[in-house]
Amino acid sequence: MARLIASLVIALSLLGCGLGMALPVFAAKEFNKQVLIGADFHGADLRATTFSLTNLREANFKGANLEGASLFGAKLQDADLSDANLRGATLDSAVFDGTKLDQAILEDAFAFNTRFKNVSIIGADFTNVPLRGDSLKILCAVASGTNNSTGRSTFNSLECE
């Protein structure tokens, strides 16, 4: 019964997004090991939510607050995380392929084993994000712009040389 109620709350919250209603605060804070292809979390308050090992291909997180969230091992191919707050998020072992991170704030996120390929990071802020050398090389090659909220350049926040 509790699972049914949580599902209804999430469904109603998602419907509310499209009707111009207030942005949802999701009651369920765990979406682990789920298939949420194309899910719409646009502008949602998802602080401390876990999406570990979840398939989030083509998901919309534009403007979402994912501060402290866990996206460990999440598949985020072609997802939109532009303007998202990812401060302190766990992104380790996640797959970012074709992912849009424009104007996202990733300050203090953990992304050491994260895979980045064909990403858009215009104006993204990577301050204090530990990255492997190969990931850093990929990101520095496309780093451009300045984050509108923090005023930091993507290139400098990655400490590119």
Present the secondary structure layout.
Elements: H1 2-18, E1 95-97, E2 115-117, H2 133-142, H3 154-157
Parallel strand pairs: 1-2
Short description:
The protein has 161 residues and is mostly helical.
Strand content: under 5%
SSE-based structural type? mainly alpha
| Uncertain segments | 1-23
For the largest beta-sheet, the strand count, sense and barrel status come to: 2 strands, parallel
* Strand neighbour order, sheet with most strands: 1-2
Question: SSE order in H/E notation?
Answer: HEEHH
The helical percent reads 10-25%
What is the residue-averaged pLDDT?
Answer: 88
Notable traits:
161 residues; disordered N terminus; 2 strands; two-stranded parallel sheet; mainly alpha; globular
Protein described:
The structure is a single chain. Residues 1-23 have low confidence and may be disordered. It is globular, with a radius of gyration of 15 Å. With 161 residues, it is mainly α. The chain has three helices and two strands.
